[in-house]
Each structure stands twice: as C-alpha cells, then as structure tokens.
Amino acid sequence: MFSRSAFPPIASLRAFEAVGRLGGIRKASKEINTDHGAVSRHIRSLESWLGAKLLVRDGQGYQLTETGAAYHQEIAKAIHLIGSATSGIMQPQERLSLSIWCIPGFGSLWLSDRLGDFIASNPDVDLDFRPADQSPDFRSVLVDGDIRYLRYWEEADVPKHVRVLEFARPEVFPVASPEYAANMKPIEDAREFLDHTLLHEDTDAEWRHWLLPQGVEADGALPGPRLWHAHLTINAARQSRGIALANIDLLSNDLETGRLVRIHPVGAPFQTVAFGGYCLLGRSDRWNSPALARFRKWIREKAAA
C-alpha cells in the first residue's frame, strides 16, 4: 500500500498529462476547460511537490524531460483507467467511437475489402476511417490508431508515447505485367534491373534495400518515376510502365488472374527480402480502450487469415 502522501492533487496530474501530450499550456487549458494560468500553476506545483523538473520550454512549446516522459507514460495510463471506469458507470450503454487513419495504398488494396466485416461485427462502434499520407501527431490530433508500413530503418522514429502492433511482415518481390515481362531479356543477375524502368513510391529507398541483399549496390539515383503511393506503382506496373516492388497483401488477386507476374531470375532464386511490416500505431493512453482493443484483435486475426 502507498501512503496518502504519495498522491499529488488530481488537478495537477490532469494538467500535466494534457500538457505533456499536447506540448502546450494553452492547448491543454482548452482541452481541460480551465484558464492557462491555472494550468501553469498546476505544473509548477506538481514539479515542486515531486522535487523534479518535468517539462522544459522550447521554441515551439513544451517538451517532457527524461524524468517527465517516464512519469507521463504512467500517469496517462492511470488517468485513462479512471476515465474508463467512470464512464462505464455513468453511461454503460454509450456507443463507442473509433478513429483510424491508414496509408492509402494498403487502405484501398487490402483493408477496404475487409473493413465491412469489422463494421458488421461491431455495430456499437462508430468508425471514422481516413486514408492519410502522413501519420498523425497523436499528442495533438484526436486519432485512436494509425496503420502504416513501417520499414526497419524507420522503427527508431516512432515516438515513445506511441504503441505499435506489427500484424504482418510480408516478403517483397518484383512484379510486372505479362506484356512487359514477355519483352524482357531473362534476368540472370539482379543488377540487370537497373536497365529497366523501376517504379518507386516517394523515394528509391525500397528498391535500394531490395537490391542490396541481391549483391547490388547502386550508385546515384535509380531510374524510374516516383508515384508516392503503393497502389499507384502497382497500377503503373499493370499498365506495363515498368517493374514494381510489391507484396502479397497489396496484390490482391493480380497474380492469380495474371494481371501481374512475379519476376524470377534464370538461375538461383533471389534472396528473400521483407524490409518492413504493416503496423497499427496508437496513443499509449488509448491503447486498451474497448474500441481500439477490438480493432487490434480483429486486424491481427484478418492478417493471419
């Protein structure tokens, strides 16, 4: 059991959680509906009570100190639990809301065909689904979850206040239309891809990371257009515009129907490459909320199936 002296005033904790998440005194005061001066006093009082610096001001707002970040993570969980328990008593029949963002390519090529199943099996959840190029700032945008293709060289960029569930890590391989493939010379060495039009998303990083395990380190920019989205590169490949990198989750039935074919070498097979995973990212303080917990379970099962 903790001593009562180990519990600071709840108003100070609430103010600290909001400022730490939103990064600003005025943003926090607006959210918790109190004067910004009162929020500042709550923060100073809490820091004095703890004997530790929790926040530092920078050019754009407030940042958590190392001590503050560790404390904020636990306080955010506690405040969410209090809110969930309270709302469960006050409004046991209340409808749930769920806001999910998603990369457009995965949203249109995989998720959209399956999302109706989640809606049908969760009639008490009001879903707000939005395809989005960029991941949201969970501290300032009221989004529960975000689906991204997280490449291994991007994993370190995930903020500490964000939780991650990887639900699929598919192999990546080159594909082209049957017409394009028929006009190609047989590929004997992966370096020969550099003689073709390579279809890229926003950069040539994916092709570079696929070529490296094949023993090819390219100099200079790789040839081919930047199309920014996976579904656009795949559609360009269908139209015989070049060769795209894809995975089975994005191709739907393209391989079965013959709209696209996988490019194989003449000799030994290419090295298997899976440089990223499809991940559900979410706010730490919302990670175990009923609606997001249901969605996590659902998407994990759908991906496994």
Automatic annotation (TrEMBL):
It holds the Pfam family LysR_substrate. Gene3D superfamilies: Periplasmic binding protein-like II (3.40.190.10), Winged helix-like DNA-binding domain superfamily/Winged helix DNA-binding domain (1.10.10.10). PROSITE patterns: HTH_LYSR. Residues 8-65 form the HTH lysR-type domain. Keywords: DNA-binding, Transcription, Transcription regulation. InterPro entries: LysR-type_TF_proteobact-type, LysR_HTH_N, LysR_subst-bd, WH-like_DNA-bd_sf, WH_DNA-bd_sf. SUPFAM superfamilies: Periplasmic binding protein-like II, Winged helix' DNA-binding domain. Belongs to the LysR transcriptional regulatory family. This is LysR substrate-binding domain-containing protein. It comes from Novosphingobium beihaiensis.
